Structures
1.
Amino acid sequence: MRFARPGIHCPPGLARRRLRRAGDHEATAPGAGISRGSPGRTRSTAEKRCHGPGTHGLLKLKLDSMRRLRISAISYLNTAPLMWDFEHGDAGAGFDISYTVPSGCAAQLSDGSADIGIIPAAAYTTIPDLLILPGVAIASRRQVRSILLVSKVPLEKIRTVALDTCSLTSVALTKVLFAKAWGGGRTFTPMEPDVERMLKSHDAGLVIGDPALRVDRSRFFTYDLAEEWVKLTGQTFVFAFWALRQAALPDASPSLDLAEIFQQSRDHGLQPENLERIARDWAPQSGLSETEVKEYLTQNIHYYLDPASLRGMQLFYACALECGCLPAAPALRFLDVTKLALAE
């Protein structure tokens, strides 16, 4: 059974689906994540070797012991397809899973309390020794709908901006857009994501995730940050991707082909019949119709860390560095996906 962290809602339907399997789970205290299934099965030690996308490098990894890896996931609607096999299938049996917000996910990988996370792209610039799980992302090639700058005045009159404390990447993107497209000189203040409170003391507020989907856009001037990025650069914007702490690999089960597990979970979550189920589960609490949920997941979100996504991400890192929003990003390093027997 999934436990949500304090203040983080439990995505719908999971408790009901997991009750019939409760005998297989060891419940932990709320906020401590979940334990699922039994420890990884013992197999001969294996080696993973792969080529990351493009020419970003090759890394050999040795998996020589095992424990359940700890996954830090995000509790927003847009991760529901990514988590499909973990919530509806058997993929979760080899992992301990907890749910938080994007900035919390980054913090857990940084402090070592999680091994794998769907991290904000910005966090890759500050957390050392991460490996990217290839092929999977939360990105957008057009309007994303869930990353909004909400304002009570037109864009050119904005002077003060409240920034959603759940966000890292969108905070940096907001600053990049002001510096590169909208004009600098704004004052930015971190705040909890409450539009009404934000706008009481600021001209505008950045809101991300499900709260942004519930904003009544007829009441405000709103600016979709992914759409604004595409207008400015013509590039895809990557908000998040799966990453792994390299230090966690020696403790992982050699039976786990991590890249395949996470890619297959995404693929299964995007199957039409499964999108129908996600829409039924999420529509009541998201404030969207079932049709709108499916449109959001299939038209606004791009779930592939493909060459176009990588180009857009590299450009974002360069712009954020130039604007002083982020430190220099390290070279992109990818987890291997081809499993080979270890040489004697």
2.
Amino acid sequence: MKRPMLLFISAVTTVAAMGIAAVTCRQHTAAGQSAANPAASGHRATRKVIAYVKTVPIRRRRITTSVVAYGTVVARASSIRNVTVPFKSQVLRILVAGGQHVRKHEPLLQLESTNSELLLLAQAKSAAIAAQEQLSEVNQKFALHLATRQSLLAARQTLQLAQLNLANLKALGIGGPRLIKAPAGGIVAKILSGPGQIVLPGGPLLQLVSSRNIEVQLGLEPEDSIKVRRGQTVNLIPVGGEVKRRIVGTISLITQRVNPLTRLVDVFVIPQAHSGLLLGQYVEGKFIIAGATGLVVPRAAVLPVGNKEELFTVRHGHAVLHFVRIGLANDHELQVLNSTLTQGEPAVIVGNAELINGMAVTGKFKP
């Protein structure tokens, strides 16, 4: 009984001694590592955090806000000239195309008389012949004292009227094909008739407009139309061109109704001379609706946080937090209202989302 008990006590003592030796060894190893690498011993809390940022200087200058509208180049209403026909006729050929530039007296269309007009011409010829015969008969009777001077004068007057009517119909071109020529030089804005079509007297055949009398019809939202005024300058840019040309125009008319087709308010702009715009061309118009002078920063410099707007600047290598109010704004820039900001101060535009007030910063500072 004593021998087994002694063996058990010896085994327990041996295990305890091995455990104490292992713990002692680990402590010495950890102490050695701490001596070789002090940063691993809990000194991370004292390491300095530096953020990389990019800044631009705050500028004091004018900022504007604008609205953009789209529309087309049209003929100015006051310059449209309708080419009409004075008698009922039928269109044989159209000799021009829409948008074509024509010179004065250049042929536009070829017409021919209708049957009813030819009948009028035949009646006029018969009336002239009958009046001539009647005058000859009255002359003979007057020579024989069988007719009065009053009868002779009446016969002469009847002949004159018949001849005048016949000459007028011939001058109008009734009786054969007739060319309609341009009364003035310009651009063919619209062709209002087609081959074979019967046109009544005074009916329009086509419209001419001077190349200098064009305007741009733009559509503005009703709430934006009240922010612009007649005589205001507008920047016009043709849409779809390889190179965007900026053309200056002036507002000539702001309509006081909503266009039922577009649901927009039509605004007419007269472009500068020699603009090179073409009828029907699609154009973008940029209207400036407000402007102010103040401290201006890129949009990326201001961060919305809750119901506040934050902006960070850099002073002596550290981030400085500013709460700002926004004035005017456009697609690229903002006007900031804050008495603690100064012109030329570097505003952070990259990395500001990670900053806190007083954080050390480094990076690219644009002068």
3.
Amino acid sequence: MPKAAPPQDSLDALRRQRKSAQSQLSLPERLAQVTREAAAEQRADGTSESTVERIAEKTPETAAERLAEVSGKTGGASAASPIYRQTKVVQPDLKTMRANRIIAPFSDTREADIFRMLRTQVLKRMGQRNARTLGICSAREGEGKSLVALNLAISLSQVDNRTVLLAELDLRRPSLLKTLGLTVEKGLDDVLDGDAEIADCLINPGYDRLVILPARNRQWPSSDVVLSTKMGLLADELRDRYSDRLVIYDLPPLLLSDASIAFMRHLDACLLVVEEGRTAKNEIEHALTLIDNDLLIGTVLNKASRISNRHYGYY
């Protein structure tokens, strides 16, 4: 004979006991316990869509937020790797990445070491000001800011106490998808046009704790777009949705567009990328005048000749 379901008051009392006990456990222990108990609860009450099924599915939240889905609490920082459901997971070709100078994933290289040094400096300076949003810009196009942004985002995502989102705001010359050798159906330009939601456009390029919001098509954004209510809401959403998230923006060149200047009100910090032997002194000086001193945390010297036989040098 099938077993009778326990009375509702008994289930309620059991849930209260679980909630009290869970508060004494670490986050991984709490997540594991909730998963086990959800399975038992599903067997007891016969629900058709169990809590354990929702946990087992690939979801875009961190471990703390998956736990919050069960306990009803808001999410928080977590060292656990996220599992993805809505966010599209893609696997860029490593040969393509190497050819396009995405070197942060290759830990056995001098260049990757340099990015880890840059990562440490960025985290230190952002930590000093409790910053969570970082803009990466250059004076003109072709000086390597997008490559710096992508390499730095990958390196930062390898720190296990935070997640990283890289958003491509250089809509005149979007390059992240090409650099990774990827194509997508929706991008940031579709969000701004009202044809997609942010969740439709995020991709995970195969690295734990990193998601990218790429742009697909070239547009000609102005300060009107950047100052729009839609852009403000988007920036707030990217910053505030997860408390452990660091948001990096690949911005348009400062001397070619007013969009970067207008967007700086959404930033906590900014890095200026300059290319050795190409960026003129007067261009650097002009670019620096356009960045609020309170935002600038440093400059990145790209393609420095002092690193012999290497593509990059960062100081």
